Structure formats: structure tokens, C-alpha cells
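Friendly challenge for the regulars: who can give me the C-alpha cells for this chain first? No prize, just bragging rights.
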Amino acid sequence: MQEAVVGFDPDAAGEQPAAALEALISRVEEEVRKLQLIRFSQEDALSLGLLIVELATERELPVAVDIRRGNHVLFHVSLPGATADNDAWVERKARTAERYAAPSLLVGLRGRVSGGRIEDNAWFDQAVYAAHGGAFPVQVKGIGPVAIATVSGLPQMEDHDLVVEALTKFSRRKKKVAPAASR
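First reply, four minutes later:
Bragging rights claimed.
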């Protein structure tokens, strides 16, 4: 009988099974492959941002929500309970996702494959970057990342999962609208 692999917790201290880390990396890489949009405009940034806010408000989550294209902030909201610290985390996570063209969670997870953490490297400036979950590149098919959607205020897996949930719903809505618009 095969033993079940316990999920990897990026916030946990101590040793965790390598198989759990690899499984989480594979999951996030699959999310990146699946979440490819046809286009992404400023209007889309507003719609996606409002969708994240709707999900967070329904759950009474104390988060900051941000969507940006480089230094151009397309959407930003701090919900009740979010603080200026969350805005600082948003900035650092978004820079990480933009710099590495990958979700900030994935950057942090890949840094653990050899047993350490990316933050342990002197070249990784934690005043500028944060390899914690919550920033996810908005990708357009055939183009690549065109914006970064970020959530901060929850444990990093929850931040990441909220952005992925919203991007998944947003992507499905866009697919339903696209055929009708072409008629």
C-alpha cells in the first residue's frame, strides 16, 4: 500500500517530504499552463480586480488586492483589516512575479528544491522581492505575462489560491463571452 504524501506547507518550519514539494511545484506549473487568456485590457484588470474583491468580501478576508503592468497600477484595493504592510508585501511579491515571469509562490518553491530557500542567497534582496505566494502573472497566449495580479493578507498559500481561483473564474467568463461576441 502506497503512503499518501502530505501537502507541502511553505510556511512550515523544518523538514518536509521532497515529494510534497515536487507535487506543489507541479500543481502551480499546471496552473500557469492553464491560465492563459486571449487578451487582457485595463477593463479586464478592473473586472478581475472586482472579482477578487467580491470573493474576498464574501469571505470577510482582510486583504490588499492589486493588479499592475510594470509600475502602472491598474487596480488596487485594501479591504477592511488590510494594512500598509500588505501594500508593501504586494509590491515585493509583484516585483518577484514580474522579474521571474512566474508566480511568486513558484519562485519560492523552486528555491527550496536543493534544500534551502531562495531568501538564503545574498543576491536575493528581500527589501525588493518576496518569494511568498500571492502574485500571479496574467498571461496572454502567444505573448506571455502582461500584468501581475497580487493578493496579500493571508497565509501565502491562501493568497495564491485566491488569485488562482479568481483567474480561473475570470478565464471561464471570458471564454463564455468570446463566442457570443463574435456572432
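Strands lie at 36-37, 64-69, 72-78, 135-140, 144-152. The chain has five helices and five strands. Your move, everyone else.
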